[in-house]
Structure formats: C-alpha cells, structure tokens
Write a structure and sequence with these properties.
Blueprint lengths: L1 H13 L3 E4 L4 E7 L2 E6 L2 E5 L5 E6 L8 E7 L4 E6 L5 E6 L2 E10 L10 E9 L2 E9 L15 E5 L20 E3 L4 E9 L2 E8 L4 E8 L4 H6 L2 E5 L9 E9 L2 E10 L9 E7 L12 E6 L2 E9 L2 E8 L3 E7 L9 E5 L11 E2 L6 E6 L2 E6 L9 H6 L5 E4 L4 E4 L7 E3 L7 E7 L3 E7 L9 E8 L2 E2 L9 E5 L8 E9 L2 E9 L10 H10 L3 E2 L5 E2 L3 E2 L5 H4 L14 E6 L2 E3 L3 E9 L6 E5 L6 E5 L2 E2 L3 E6 L5 E8 L5 E10 L3 E6 L2 E3 L5 E7 L6 E4 L2 E3 L2 E2 L3 E5 L13 E9 L2 E11 L4 E9 L2 E8 L12 E6 L2 E11 L7 E7 L7 E8 L2 E6 L3 H61 L3 H6 L9 H9 L17 H4 L3 H10 L2 H12 L6 H14 L4 H17 L16 H38 ...
Parallel strand pairs: 43-50, 52-59, 67-74, 73-75
Antiparallel strand pairs: 1-28, 2-3, 3-4, 4-5, 6-7, 7-8, 8-9, 10-11, 11-12, 12-13, 14-15, 15-16, 16-17, 18-19, 19-20, 20-21, 22-23, 23-24, 24-25, 26-27, 27-28, 29-30, 29-31, 32-33, 32-41, 33-36, 34-35, 34-37, 37-38, 39-40, 42-44, 44-48, 45-46, 45-49, 47-48, 49-50, 51-53, 53-57, 54-55, 54-58, ...
Helix pairs in contact: 6-18, 8-14, 10-26, 10-28, 11-27, 12-14, 12-26, 13-14, 14-18, 19-20, 20-21, 21-22
Length: 1459
C-alpha cells in the first residue's frame, strides 16, 4: 500500500509540469507576462509558458562570457542583459523578441569574473527609472580589465535623455557611489515605495546586513542615505549567511522571507526559513517574526501571499521543491514536496512564480528549467482530502463536486482553514453531567447544513439534545475506552462523517506520572501543575506531549536510561530499508521506534523485530526524499536518542564488468553506478544475493544457472536491485556455457614444469586471477601459477599457460581447473591409441591427395610446368635485381656531388633564430623585433615599463615573482614557457644578471623536496627555469652554432634531401625509396630510370633561354618535375625563378609539336575510384627530352584548386606509386602487381645511411668538440656550475653529473636544433626529412646514454641502423665531457665579458619594452598572490611599495590611453 502511495505521489508531481534541458548550466532567469528569459552560457533564450524556445540571442562575441545581469524593464518593453566579457558588456533587447538589439555598450555594471558578487535591479526616483548596480570584483583572471567602481554600489541611467546617457553613473558633474567592504556578497535587492532594500552577507564579520536607502532626491542623495542593520537568525542557532530571499507583500506588507545557513550540512537544522518585517527599524539587530521551516540544506525560496495565507516555496540541495503554507499567525502547516529531481542536483537560488496567474513556479536544477504547478488540487478525490490538504490554492468546488484551484471554480468553494474539519468543545461539566458541542470552522456555502449524531456502542446516549450538534449525558456513561461521537456534515448534498472520542479526563491513569501525562495530553485533556489530569476549559486541544510533559517528575524506573549511539545505515533510498540496526546501551526496554519526517508532518511508530541491551533491529518504511529522525520509545512515553536518517533518491546502474559468466556461476562481477551503497542486495535468476557495495560499485559472485544456456546459446538475465521490499531494474548479465578444457601438455623449463592447457574458444574472456589450477605430480598436489592466457580464433583453441616451480622432473597424472563453482579435471591421455587413429587419418588423406595430384598431373602437366617456370624465373630475376641494386647503392655514394651543390648556406639572422626558439608555437614575434627603419619614438620605453624593468632587476623580487607564479594551479606549462621567453627578451641586454637569476632558480629547483630523484632533474620543461635554461643556451651558443656547427648541419640536411630525391618519392603519402626511417620507406615502388631533361625557360616575345640540364625520374609526377626544375634553377643561378610553382606550365616538345604536361587530364588512368597521377612515363618522355617552361595561360582548370594537392580529399581520390587496395586492379593491371617484400628494401635504409654517414659523424664530432677541440665558454661555465652543485649537495653517484649535463645541453638544445634545422636555416622541412632527422637525433641522444642497449634481430630498424656506431660515439661523448672538465676554469670576469660581448652583438634587435609590457600582464593577473608571497617571505617593504607604484603607473597609462 505504501509503495502505491509513493508511486501515486511521483506521478502526481510530474503531471502538468513542463521542462527544458539546455546544453550548458543555467546562469540567470527572468519572467515577464507570458515569456521566460533564460541565460545559459553565452546564449539567451526567450521561451513561452510551456517552455518552448521562441527566440535566441548569442552574447558570446569575440571572447567567452556568461550572463550576470538580466533585468526586465517593463516600462520600456526592454530586457537589460550584461555579460562577463570585454571587461563588461551590456545590451538592451526587445522584450518581445530578444534577437532584436536596441542598444549595446561596454559597461562595468557586471563583474569580469562570473564567480564575483554582483547585484542589479530597477528603482524609481521621481519620474525616472534607474538601475541599482553593485559589484564586488575578485582579482583572479580579470585580464587587462581595470575599473574604478569595484566594491561599490552605483545608480545607472536607463535612458538616453538622462545625463551621461544609458548605463552612465555620472549625474550633475559627479560620480555617485557607496563604497563597500570587499568581503561582502550580494544576495538580493528591491524597492518598496520610497524605501530601497539591499541584503548582503558580510563574510569578514559573519553576519547578514540589510542596507536601507531613501529614494528621494538625486543619485548622490539616495546613496548617501544608506543605513546598515544586522539581521539575526535565529534564537536556537547562529546562522550568519543568507542563501536566498523573497519579498512576500500582499496582505503582509513589509514581510520578507529569507533562507539562512549555519554552514553545516550534516546538521538537520542547518538552514532556517525565517520571516521578517523589514519595515521595522529597531535599535539593535532585526529579529524574525517567525521561523517557518528548518532543513539540512535549503538553497532557494519564493514567497507569495494568498488571502490570509503566506505560501512559501523552497528548493533544496538534493533537488526538492517543498511548499509550506503559513496561516495569518505565521504558523506553518505540514510541508509538502511538489517536485523531486532524479539526482541530487541543487535547486538554483532564484525561483520565480508565473506572473500571469501564479499557478506555476519556475525552478532550475543544473542545466534544466522546469515549470511546476504550485498545487495538485485534482489529486484529492474527496472533500475530506481536499480540506485536510490545507492548501490555500485549493478548495472543494461545490458545483463541480471536485477539488480544484479556487480561481477556477465557477461557484462557491469550501476552503481549508484548519487541518481537522470538526472540533469538540466542553460547554459545561458538573459532578454528574457533561455537555459537549461540535463545531466546524468551515465557511459553508448556501444550501449546506451540519447535523450530528452521538452514539456509544451504536446507541444514542444524549439526554438533552439542545441543538443539532450538542449533547448532554451523565459522566458515568463514559467508558474506559472513551465516548465515540459520529459527526455528519452535509454540504450541497454530500455527506462527510467525522469520528471524535471523548475520554473521562479525571479518570485517566497510567503506570507512572510521565505516562499519565502523555495519555492525558494526547486525549485533549489538561495536565495541571499539580500533576493531575482534568477537563479542559473550552475546546479539546491535542498539544505536543513532549513539550507539556518535559518537566514532569519521573518516578525511579526499574531500568537504566537508554543511550543511542548510532543507526546503521543512516543513508537509505526512499523505498526504505529492512533490518536497520540501532546501536547503543540499555536498549532492552525500548518498546517501539518512532520515525518522524520533515515534510508532510510524517510520523510513524515502528515495531522492534529483535533487540538486546546493545542493539535493536527494525524495518524503515518507504517515504519521500527527506531528512528523517529516529528515536527509541520508552514505556513511560518518552522518546530518547534522536538520530538522523537520510532518505535519498533511488540508485541506478551504468555498467557491468565482466558482462557475462559461465553457467555454473561463481564469477566475480562488478556493477557500476550511483548510490549503490543504498541497496540491500541484488536479485538474479529469481533469487536474492548479497555482495560488497560502495557508492559507485557493487561486487558479487554470480549464482549458478545451468539451464540458462542450453546447447551453447546465449541467455541474458536481468539484474534487479533490492531496495527494502521493492526491486529496480539494473543491467543485463549474459550466461554462457561452461568453458571446455580439452587437453594439457607439460614441458620442463629449467627447474620448473610448464603446463599448457587447451580450451575451446568462447566469449568468456577469462583472466588469470579467475583460474585456480592444481596438478597431481607424482601423486602429490601442486599449485600451478597462471602465466598467460592466449586467445585463439575460430580455427584455433585458446591456451592457458601455468608453471609449477621446482618440479621439472616430475610426471603429471592429472590437472584440475577451478573457475568459481565450475571445476574440470583432465587426465593424462593414452598417446598410443590416438597415435594409431591419427596415423590412419593421415594415410587416408595422403591417398586422396595422391590421387588428386595424379589427376592434375595428367591433365595440366605441361601448362602448369611452363607457367610455374616462367613465374619463378621472373621472381628470381626481380629478387636478384633488388639485392644487386641494394648492394650497389651501399657501395656508391655521391659525397663530392653533395658538397659541390651546396652553394651559399642560407642562415637565418639572430632575431629570427631567437623567435623560433623562444616562441616555437607562435606564428610571429614581430612585436618584439625592431625594424631597421623603426622610429625611436615608437620603441622608446614608457615610464611604467622603465619602472617595471628596474623592479625585475632586483633579484629578490624576480625570484619571488617566479616562485609566486609557479605556485598558482591555473599557471600552465605554456604560461611558464612564455614568461621565461619574455624574461629572456626583457633582460637580453643584461645577460650577466639573467645568468645569476637562472643559477639561483636552478639551485632552488634542485633543493625542492619533490626532487628526491636527482637523475630526473631537467628531463622535462615543467618550470620557468627549465625553459629559461633552453633560451640561455640558445643565446650563448648561437655564435658557436653559426661558426662551427652550422656548415656540417646544413651539409647533412642537403645530403639527406639529395639522397631521397635519387629514388622515387610517392607524391601522395610522402614515402621514399631512400630514407633512414622505416616508417617512411616506400617498399612497393616500381622500376624507375633517371632522365636528363633539357629545360628552357620562356623569357618573353617568344624567346627562350639556354637549356638547363635537370635530372628527374620517369616515375616523377608533373608537379615533382616542376619542383626539381625550380630547384635546379636556384642551384645554378643562386636565386629563385621569378614565378611560383603554381604559376608555371611545362610542355614536352615532340616531333615539332608540344604536349602540355598536367597532373590529371583526360588521359589519366582510373583504378576503381582512384585516379593515378600522370608521370613522365605516362607521357612517354624519353631521356634527353626537351622541356619548355612557360607562364600559366588562361585555361579551364580541371579542378577548382590551383593544384590537385589543394583538394581536401587528395589522399583518397588520387594515388601515385602506391596502388590502392582494389581487387579489380590485379585483374586489369596484372603487370603492376609484382611480388614485393618489405625486408628486401630494408637495404635502402642502409644505403641511405652509407651516403650520409660521413656528414653525420662530422656533425656529431663538431658538436662535442673532438673535431677541432673547440668548446664554447658557455658550456664550460655551465658544466662547472653543475659540478659545483653536485659537490654542494654531496651527491656521490657519478652518473648524476653526467645525466645533468646531458639533460642541460644535448637534450635541451642540440636535439632541438637537429630535429628542426628550419630554426637555423631558411629552408622548408618536409615530413620525410623530419623522419630522417628523428633517427639521427635519437642516435645522438643514445650516444649520451649510460645504459647499454641489448638489441635483437626483431628490434626497430631505426635503432639497429646505428647500433654498431653508438659504442664509438659513447666513448667520444665521455672524451668530450672529460675535455670540458679538464679545460682551465673560466673566471667570472672572463665569462661576464663573454656575455656582454654576446649581448652587444644583438643589442638593437629586440623591443625590450614590448616584452616588459607583456610580462606585466602576469603581474596584473596574479597581483594579490605575488603581494602575499612577498609578505609571507619577509621581503623588504620597499619592494612592496615599488610593486604598488608599478601597478599605479600602468593603470594611469592605460587610463590616459583610453581618454
């Protein structure tokens, strides 16, 4: 029955409600007439009353923001909205169509940070309307936004006609504001007549304040009239924070409701809903008129007056909407739940009633808006139920004969005033007679009547019926159980019967005075101070027995006072819980358990199922989501040991792992979900099962279900969650047949015995932890430890491998496998029997095969033999050719030709080199570069920049600044790299100081407690100093890089490019026949020939240049040929051709005519859905052919792009050397499908290595100084610094200094240069070149490794390629490190001169002021944090003053720029 009531309850809650879910969390809400305005993210939605979106507006603009201000200006039919972007941005929109913009401007009426506190509402001053605006800004993430109106309340204009126009604060030549403390938080504000009220939380003093203003005079007069008054809530507990508020008004003018919290959600009375008369103005704190409701966590309130009633709607942190009605004396009725969300999402602080008819309320939970009916009148089917609901919105409609909204009834209604429809009043009492009257508080419509009948045991006992509802009878007629009175009320022909009981008050007795008091008060009698029960004077009233009987003298009891320690569990679902335990002391005399709820005045006494002195067991019934109270009821009527029990929403499941089990059961399965700790267990296969549960997991062992998977079929079983006496669907579990283990094989491995068990393939996906395997070895049981499980396919079996230690010589008799409840024993097989069976089968198969072969031989001998011989000959020739070509490639190199073709090395200048090192992800660093013709005025530093530049030259400040930034959680790695690079530029002219700062920061990094593993130091760039070290190395080593390393590096890059172009390169994938990287190896290439082309260039007027010889391959595409022609032109003449590649055409002259060569034309071959790009072979261009280069003429292009590579589907529409995987291709083009083995072409990797090997070695030896014994002073200085730090930290491990040096120089600088030559030269790096350089860079780093690599034949080729060279390189690295260590130590003066000389070379190349300005942005973003860090570390006070002056100068400069 109770479950049915709960079900009907939730059905009733959902009826007639509307909801809408948005993509983002809802930030603000407003209503007007028949429209609702919702702000979610940067989107504004206009909806109708059914919550259907009618209009939208995107408020995001150029940067993200969220709506903070949403004000309906009904007089102008406009909606004012402000967004936290662009330092505050506001718009005025049309109320009827929010997509229509009326006005917009940047305004500080909203904070820059959404989490900051603000307030905005309309006020009337005289004949004008203004916006009362308050902002309390935070210092986090405000970017470049500056304002003079932080922490103030201002009045803003709303019309153009007012001084200063819309949103202006200015009035009559001054700026009116009311300053506030930064620690306050706005909650609400509104205007009542000439009074303006603003409610704020003062966090520093922990109190709630009411700000009162008089709306008289101008803006300044209004703000200057501000008076402060504290609000006190409440007497029994201090609740200092206001959460939400709502003005009541109507028949309760000046009355206001607020939700206050003490900040302790575990307290059942943590939040209180208090009613105040804010028109009162006492000398001290303003105290509440009444406390209407207490709850663990209320989050919002909305109030409305309805006649003589006040109706309050409160939202809670667990997603409930609760309604409380107060009568004219502010006494609450039973709270009722109007809505409960499916999960525990808090209700938004702002709830709004529908302005049209007040019949629905709009509430927000997360990203969902819901319209909830304020009453469910039609759920009450009788007049008694309608009356008992005590809902001010509902009444019994006499003409319609049903409960409905009072405003909807076409005639008279019977309205609820009191919970009971009748009351009993004692008119007179004498020694032998008593007279009682029955009254009803109902306001009855015309035509209604009340009649009463009085009976006891079915007979009328009244002696003198003076009126229809009056009775006089002898007192002695009152029986022990009382006198039953049946009262029948007739309203418009409908009769209602009420049953009342009158007891003989003086004769009420009990075992103790306390029990007598409880019996007296609960019977409606009066308990006097003399501890006697007597007749009441007037109406029988059932008071609270606990209040009346609290001070009654208790006689000594024959049992000890019980103590309740806890109730387990204390959190359950609203379905209730069976077998709940109450733990404590002296519990053996508890008679019942009393359960009381917060909502609907719920109270119930529960039977004790089992009890001892230390524990009780009982069942908790189902109820709504609520905070319940449980106490132990004693024989004297008292209830002691109050404990809280939370009724929460239902749990739900999200996943299960594993999702299947075997038929015999016993598999460990985990269910994942939410609130799974609330379940009693699960129901599976018709039976209940228990397990281990937590909030998000429930683990159990599956029961057997041998009939669920007959004949190998799958059978799904639904798992149900058990909740008290109810179940809830969870997830499906699939039962599969038991696994089939077929055989085993034992093999000795060393001193151990390894067993491989065969198993038929299934879908169980067994794990080693689930298997328990034992084996009988020489008549003794041994555990076999599972090593691996290898899954087979449909044609093979699974295999399980396990090992028995120290039993290699044993003989196995049997193996036993246990899986949960399933077990299987495999016996040793008789091999002789199976041997003869297999032998017979093989003989029979051999006989059949022999017959087939003879038949084939007879009919196809000659044809097959000829084809096979031809195919083998061709295959042999191909393999011979490939191997010979690989051998030739490894023996012949073109080193001299590479050197001849190098020409001038295209070095980048220093500032472009620095740009790519400092800001590798930025597209440009032009802001920090000085142009040659740049005016001095443009680059002259401002006073603010000079001040900050001077400040960062204080080492104490700069190191503190860096440490403060790195302590911030939102300071990302990208920010760290940017700050390091900006510091490098800002201090580029003072490299000595920058070096000192870097050394101090490195020491601090080494001393950090987190760096307990010194070998890991400097491996990554996770701090500012690590990026600073990279920049420092780049600055100091640029001269060495250009003078010594630049040429060998460029020769290596040129050699790699030349070598790759000697063979085919697939135009689509970029793979090449000649490469160092196997991932970029083109192993399916065709045969190719080198062609010497004679190329002439059109020079205008029909004339042509002399022929230029260009090498190309016959498999090159037309675009590749163009690239080689332009490269040859630049190599020959030293400058590029004046036209780009897409601007030229090439023609092949043949027999006096010319043929235009195109990538794709009408002659292109098509294979399946792919088009083959045209090559020289396609056009049959021979060696020595004449090619003519001309400018592109106007012609209809084949595609809309300038090149086919511009097609976004280029790789899927076209192919070059790698054929598409299409079956038809082999049938149509069998000559293209030759046998190609990737391993044969691995020799191409080696031939490429041979071709560039001398360049690699020359580069490496130049870098580590063995080629010319030349070492940069920066390397010597820094290596000595690292050696000194090793000594300082007393590190004895010799590997540590080697690793530190490796992480500082090769890893941090040289590898970056090796992999990115475009940082040094004006060249383009292709993906193919990047793949080759990655192999060389990896070899370079392996040379510095202290670990010996053990590589086998299956190791990656990228590692194997240089495996024999690395030992030699490692020896040279050690020699290099020793060389540096043995060099004479550089004095500080010598190194300072080196740094000054380095800085002087590039002193006019960077705009340090621009770097300083951008560096200051981080000071501004984290100003408060930097200031706190300086104060906490006892830095000189002068630094704080300087920092404040720098901020003031930057702000003043920004204000001047704005003006």
């Amino acid at each position: 029955m109770r479950t049915a009531i709960i079900f009907i309850f939730f059905i009733g809650l959902s009826r007639c409600d509307y909801s809408h879910t948005f993509d983002k969390q809802i930030d603000n809400l407003a209503v007007w007439k028949r429209s609702i305005y919702v702000a979610a993210g940067a989107q504004l939605y206009q909806m109708n009353r059914n919550l259907t979106v009618e209009k939208t507006r995107d408020l995001s603009g150029s940067e993200p923001g969220r709506v903070k201000v949403l004000v309906v200006f009904e007089r102008n039919n406009t909606l004012v909205t402000c967004v936290t972007r662009n330092c505050g941005y506001c718009e005025v929109l049309d109320l009827n169509n929010v997509s229509k913009l009326i006005y917009a401007e940047n305004s500080s009426m909203t904070p820059f940070n959404y989490n900051a506190s603000s307030l905005c509402f309309l006020v009337e001053l005289g004949s004008g309307a203004y916006l009362m605006s308050g902002v309390i800004e935070t210092n986090e993430n405000v970017g470049n936004c500056l304002t003079n109106f932080n922490n103030t309340i201002t009045l803003r204009n709303t019309m153009h006609a007012q001084d200063g126009e819309i949103f202006s604060e200015i009035a009559s030549g001054l700026t009116p504001t009311h300053d506030l403390k930064a620690s306050i938080h706005f909650v609400d504000g509104f205007q009542l007549g000439t009074e303006i009220y603003i409610f704020v939380n003062v966090q520093s003093n922990k109190n709630v304040q009411l700000l009162r203003m008089q709306s008289k005079g101008d803006k300044s007069a209004v703000l200057q009239s501000t008076r402060h008054q504290s609000l006190s809530c409440c007497d029994e507990k201090s609740r200092w924070k206001l959460v939400s508020s709502s003005y009541i008004g109507g028949d309760f003018p000046g009355y206001w409701a607020g939700v206050f919290t003490a900040g302790n959600t575990s307290d059942q009375r943590n939040t209180a809903l208090a009613i105040y008369n804010i028109t009162k103005n006492p000398q001290g704190d303003l105290k509440p008129e009444a406390v209407a409701f207490t709850h663990p966590s209320m989050t919002s309130v909305a109030a409305v007056s309805f006649g003589s009633w006040v109706v309050l709607f409160v939202g809670t942190a667990n997603g409930q909407l609760i309604k409380i009605s107060l009568d004219g004396n502010l006494k609450p009725t039973c709270p009722r739940v109007l809505y409960q969300s499916d999960d525990d999402v808090p209700v938004f602080y702002k709830m709004l009633l529908d302005p049209e008819d007040k019949k629905r309320i709009y509430m927000v939970t997360g990203n969902q808006l819901r319209a909830v009916s304020v009453a469910q009148c039609d759920q009450y089917s009788s007049m008694r139920d309608c009356w008992s609901a005590q809902d001010p919105f509902c009444g019994w409609c006499v003409p319609m004969k049903r409960c409905m909204f009072n405003s909807e009834c076409p005639g008279a209604t019977v309205r609820s005033v009191y919970r009971r429809m009748t009351s009993l009043q004692i008119e007179s009492v004498s020694s032998d007679m008593i007279t009682v009257n029955v009254t009803t508080p109902m306001r009855l419509p015309n035509g209604s009547s009340v009649s009463c009948s009085f009976d006891a045991v079915g007979s009328d006992i009244c002696d003198k019926p003076a009126s229809p509802c009056s009775c006089t009878f002898p007192v002695h007629n009152l029986q022990t159980g009382g006198f039953n009175i049946a009262v029948r009320i007739t309203v418009a022909g409908e009769g209602i019967t009420e049953h009342l009981v009158v007891k003989n008050c003086p004769n009420i007795t009990a075992a103790s005075s306390v029990a007598q008091c409880y019996a007296c008060v609960t019977s409606g009698c009066t308990w006097s101070s003399s501890q006697t029960c007597s007749w009441p004077n007037g109406k029988l009233h059932q008071a609270q027995a606990e209040d009346v009987c609290e001070n009654v003298t208790r006689p000594p009891s024959n049992y000890s006072e019980p103590e309740v320690h806890s109730v387990i569990p204390s959190v359950i679902s609203f379905h209730g819980k069976n077998n709940v335990k109450m733990l404590g002391e002296n519990l053996d005399h508890v008679t019942k358990i009393r359960l009381q709820g917060t909502v609907e005045c719920y109270s119930e006494e529960l039977q004790v199922l089992a009890q001892t002195a230390h524990s009780l067991r009982f069942n908790l019934p189902g109820w709504k989501v609520d905070m319940m109270t449980v106490c132990a009821l004693l024989p004297d009527g008292r209830c002691v040991g109050s404990q809280s029990v939370m009724y929460r929403p239902l749990p739900h499941c999200t996943a299960i792992s594993p999702s299947n089990t075997w038929a015999s059961g016993g598999r460990k399965v985990t269910i994942f979900g939410e609130k799974l700790d609330l379940v009693d267990g699960i129901e599976l296969c018709g039976k209940a099962h228990i397990g281990n549960s937590s909030s998000k997991r429930f683990e159990f062992r599956t029961p057997p279900n041998l009939e669920s998977a007959p004949n190998g079929t799958l059978q799904g079983e639904l798992i149900l969650l058990c909740l008290a006496n109810e179940t809830r669907e969870c997830v499906q579990l699939t039962y599969l047949p038991n696994p089939e283990f077929t055989s085993f094989k034992a093999t000795p491995v060393g001193s151990d015995l390894r067993i491989v068990i065969a198993k038929k393939v299934d879908k169980l996906n067994l794990t080693g932890q689930e298997l328990n395997i034992t084996a009988t070895v020489d008549d003794q049981q041994h555990q076999c430890e599972v090593e691996s499980i290898i899954l087979g396919n449909d044609m093979a079996e699974d295999s399980v491998t396990c090992k028995i230690s120290n039993q290699s010589k044993g003989s196995i008799q049997s193996v036993r496998i246990v899986l949960g409840n399933f077990s299987k024993q495999l016996e040793e097989q008789n091999t002789n029997k199976y041997y003869w069976i297999l032998l017979g089968v093989f003989a029979f198969i051999a006989l059949i095969i022999t017959g087939v072969l003879l038949w084939v031989y007879h009919f196809k001998k000659k044809k097959l033999s000829a084809e096979m011989n031809k195919y083998l000959d061709t295959l042999e020739c191909e393999i011979r050719k490939e191997i010979r070509q690989g051998f030739v490639d490894m023996q012949i190199t073109e080193t001299s030709q590479f050197i001849e073709n190098v020409g001038t090395i295209p070095f980048l200048d220093y500032k472009h080199f620095a740009s790519r090192i400092f800001f590798p992800e930025a597209s440009s660093m032009s802001n920090y570069m000085k142009d040659i013709d740049q005016s001095p005025v443009k680059t002259e530093p401002t006073q603010s920049c000079l001040a900050f530049s001077q400040l960062i030259r204080n080492k104490t400040f700069l190191t503190s600044f860096i440490h403060a930034l790195e302590a911030q959680k939102d300071f990302t790695v990208k920010d760290k790299c940017t700050v390091a690079s900006l510091l490098t530029l800002a201090l580029h002219t003072d490299l000595s100081y920058l070096t000192e700062v870097m050394q101090d920061l490195l020491r601090a990094l080494m001393d950090q407690s987190s760096n307990v593993q010194p070998k890991l130091l400097l491996r990554r760039t996770e701090s500012i100093v690590e990026k600073l070290l990279t920049n420092w190395m780049s600055v100091c080593l640029y001269g060495f890089l250009r003078e010594s390393v630049g040429q060998p590096l460029y020769l290596l890059v040129s050699a790699l490019v030349e070598k790759t172009l000697k063979g085919p390169v697939d135009c689509v994938t970029g793979k090449a026949l000649y490469t160092l990287n196997e991932d970029w190896l083109l192993w399916l290439s065709e045969d190719f020939q080198t062609l010497k082309l004679k190329v002439s260039f059109s020079v205008g007027s029909g004339e042509e240049s002399e022929c230029l010889e260009v090498s190309a391959l016959d498999c090159d595409t037309v675009e590749q040929v163009k690239e080689k022609i332009l490269a040859a032109f630049k190599s020959k003449f030293g400058f590029p051709y004046y036209k780009q590649l897409v601007e030229i055409d090439i023609y092949y002259e043949k027999d006096g005519s010319t043929v235009l060569l195109l990538e794709v034309d009408s002659t292109s071959k098509v294979v399946g859905e792919m088009t083959l790009l045209n090559t020289l072979k396609h056009y049959k261009v021979p060696d020595g052919a004449l090619i003519k280069v001309t400018t592109v003429k106007n012609r209809a292009p084949l595609t809309a792009q300038a090149s086919v590579k511009d097609d976004q589907n280029f790789t899927t529409k076209y192919c070059h050397l790698i054929d598409p995987d299409i079956d038809t291709s082999q049938r149509k083009n069998p000559e293209r499908k030759k046998l190609k083995l990737k391993e044969i072409n691995l020799t191409k990797l080696l031939s490429t290595k041979v071709a560039v090997h001398s360049f690699v070695e020359n580069l490496f030896r130049t870098i580590w100084g063995t080629a010319n014994n030349k070492v940069s002073p920066a390397i010597k200085f820094f290596f000595d610094f690292l050696d000194s730090e090793v000594e300082r930290k007393k590190i004895t491990d010799p590997d540590v200094p080697h690793i530190w040096k490796t992480n500082s120089l090769p890893l941090r600088f040289w590898v970056n240069i090796l992999k990115n030559p475009q940082f040094v030269f004006d060249i383009d790096k292709t993906p193919l070149l990047d793949g080759c350089l990655s192999v060389i860079a990896q070899t370079f780093m392996d040379s510095f490794s202290l670990l010996d690599q053990q590589l086998g034949k299956y190791a990656p080729t990228n590692k194997l390629l240089y495996v024999k060279d690395i030992p030699q390189y490692k020896q040279e690295v050690k020699t290099f490190y020793k060389l540096v260590k043995d060099l004479p130590q550089i004095t500080e003066q010598e190194f300072r001169e080196f740094l000054n000389e380095t800085a002087k070379k590039h002193e006019n190349e960077f705009n340090e002021s621009a770097a300083v300005r951008d560096l200051y942005k981080y000071v501004k973003r984290y100003f408060r944090e930097i200031q706190d860090y300086l104060e906490q570390n006892n830095t000189p006070s002068g630094l704080l003053v300087q920092l404040e002056e720098v901020r003031n100068q930057f702000e003043n400069m920004r204000n001047l720029s704005w003006e």
